[in-house]
Amino acid sequence: MPWSHPALVLRLILLLILNEFVRSGFFVAFLPLRSGEFALTTGTVGLIVGGHYLADALAKGPVGVLTERWGVGRLLVAAALAGLLLVAFTLAALSWVVPLALSVLWGLTFTAMWPGIMTVVSRDAHEGQQARALSLTTLSATPGIALGAVGVGVLMRNAPAFAFPALLTAQVLALLVALSLVNLRVPPAARATPRRSWADVAGLLPPAILQTLAPGLMMTLFYPFLDRIGVTFRDLLLPGLLAAALAAAVVPLAGRLADRTAPRTALLPGLLALASAFTLLALPHPETRLYLILPLFAAGFAAFTAGWNGLLDRTLPQEHRSAAWGTVMTFETLGYAIGPIIGGFVWQFAGAPGTFALGAALYLTALLLHALRRTRARASTHAAELPGH
Question: Which segments cross the bilayer (predicted)?
């Protein structure tokens, strides 16, 4: 394992999985499908969900500072407790104002989770294995998100009585795990690194938003797209398993490449593969190319994740790292927030081909920004080495 204290990191990963399972399950499946029982309109549900994610996005930078001052563990406990309050009291709420307030509270506390945990993981990683440690942590939370969005939806349709107990149990477990980490603080940097400025962080923000804006275009259009091309979840099962296996194989290889050479060595091919997958989806009859598209997307995402996390680890300043990580994640979250709006507009006028073509263009633009940044960095290094500098 690429971590110095694997037992600690595994608890942090478990906490991420549980919280993301509940968050995606509650907001994507449970609340929309049971809103009628709570006398909630579609607009009110959107307000509750949007309020949570907006609070999460806008508070990441400021809460990152609090993470360093108060300790990661205390905020992890606060996040788990806020999530438990939302799940537990939504059923008994007499007004939509209560779940709205609790969802915003959960967003304000949840916002500390990812920046805080990623900072701890980056500091705990073995020297030379930072990209691998961070990418494994990021991808380990993916099953929780998928299981929440899809699994809770299946429960709601086939065994609705079990959905609420599943969410409540998972959030109680998350609180117990968080309590075991209550005294956790961000460890000091154990390795000497070049001093970084906030200007270096600012250079990452444009590609950060583009990289999440591209997949965000299809966030609310995934099911309509499957219906339009006549594909079911059964059709996706085998190519999906192949894609998952390929991603699992690519992550350690791309992470090792990013650690031993330069993060962009994995990042740029990853973005190119993602753009290629979106291009193939934009062409006619994408349902005939699922065994190519899904593995290509999975391999690209794995390489991109390793390269991007490695780049963040090398670029973000060691001082106030949680705040810096939170700032980058704010822009990433904004990409996911804006994506559905733009995607819906493009879908209306250009259909699925236009939406995927735009996504491919966004990935290619992010690739170009990273390539230009690398070229400038090399030019600056070369100029500094010239006589007289």
Answer: 12-32, 38-55, 75-98, 104-121, 133-156, 162-184, 204-224, 236-254, 266-284, 290-311, 323-347, 353-372
d(CA 321, CA 327): 10
Is the model's pLDDT at 361 over the cut of 60? yes
Q: Which amino acid type is present at position 228? A: R
| Class of 196-389 in CATH | mainly alpha
Number of neighbours of residue 381 by Cβ within 10 angstroms: 9
pLDDT score recorded for residue 192: 46
What global pTM score does this model have?
A: 0.78
DSSP 91: T
CATH architecture of 1-185: Up-down Bundle (1.20)
- Domain boundaries along the sequence of the chain: 1-185, 196-389
Q: What percent of the chain has pLDDT over 70?
A: 93
Helix orientation angle between 72-90 and 163-179, rounded to the nearest 10 degrees: 160
When pLDDT is averaged across residues 125-136 and rounded to a whole number, the result is 80
Q: How many helices (DSSP H) and strands (DSSP E) are in the chain?
A: 18, 0
